[in-house]
């Protein structure tokens, strides 16, 4: 007798049909579908840095739009090749807004404040107050608010729409050059009117609580300001030290993990001085790569912590650090 292995027996077919009929009405079988949950986990991540505790919260994603219109100096073919090689979309550069809250043991320090209620880039921003509370942090407990610069997505959440401070017990830190520029109607170009309005709305009500910081200054214990001008006139990055560990908060030194990294002299449409910004980016990334200092990138994929390394072609590559869920 020859047995065909590619065809089921008549007895097998009959048994299968009977089993299907018997289980058709049972709960949990194929006919019953679980509902879509349509919800996400709380938007925060906690980590340790030396003797300090860091909590990453978010102001939400910021869809920048067509990368070809926002990142300048690459041909469309060059840009598309970079994006394709890194599995990134060609039509919309979506940035994160990774906000650090650092508990040093003596101070609770917030770095940048997001967009507030401004919806210049769509409805997905403005989540800072919600994500802080999800992380168990009361805005009243913030001792210091440190701003890398006075652009809408970095100072926009300092105050509520009625002018009351979101962080009523905090001292605020920013460079004087950025404050003076972005709150002055005589200096800000008309095309940046939303930036002027946002800076005035958020910085003028807290003027008496503002402390102006300078290049190289350790203005809070373990937090040193480093001038990184170009993206804005007084843009700062911050070197954070706790115990034996360092972390460099990049602000807007680079907005994109590929387009401003592989060729760091590529320019960005929102830079005040694109040429200066590109040279600053090259200088600072070279220092960070050579010293293997971990970085926190405000606009990179969540939660934005990783390393930069030279790619051997005059540019850099970003290596995200895996999230560690145990503290």
Which features does this protein show?
327 residues; alpha+beta; Metallo-beta-lactamase, Chain A; seven-stranded mixed sheet; 8 helices; signal; RibonucZ/Hydroxyglut_hydro
What layout of secondary structure does this protein have?
Layout: H1 10-23, E1 44-49, E2 52-58, E3 62-63, H2 67-70, E4 71-72, H3 76-85, E5 94-95, E6 98-103, E7 108-111, H4 128-134, E8 144-146, H5 152-155, E9 171-174, H6 176-182, H7 193-203, E10 210-212, E11 218-220, E12 223-227, E13 236-242, E14 245-249, E15 267-268, H8 274-290, E16 295-296, E17 305-310, E18 316-320
Question: At CATH's second level, what is the architecture?
Answer: 4-Layer Sandwich
Radius of gyration, CA atoms, in whole angstroms: 25 Å
Q: What portion of residues is helical?
A: 10-25%
- At the fold tier of CATH, the topology name is Metallo-beta-lactamase, Chain A
Q: How many helices?
A: 8
Uncertain residue ranges: 10-15, 17-23
- Structural class from helices and strands? alpha+beta
Pfam family, one: Lactamase_B
GO molecular function: hydrolase activity; metal ion binding
Protein name: Beta-lactamase
Domain Metallo-beta-lactamase: 96-299
Quick recap:
With 327 residues, this protein is α+β, with helices and mostly antiparallel strands. The protein is 23% helix and 23% strand.
Give a description of the structure.
The protein starts with 9 loop residues before the first helix and ends in a 7-residue tail after the last strand. The protein has 327 residues and is an alpha+beta fold. Strand 8, helix 5 (152-155) and strand 9 form a beta-alpha-beta unit. Mean pLDDT is 92; it is low at 10-15 and 17-23. The chain has a seven-stranded mixed β-sheet with strand order 1-2-6-7-8-9-10. The longest helix is centred in the last third of the chain and has 17 residues, at 274-290. It has one domain (47-320): Metallo-beta-lactamase, Chain A (4-Layer Sandwich), CATH 3.60.15.10. Helix content is 23%, strand content 23%. It has eight helices and 18 strands.
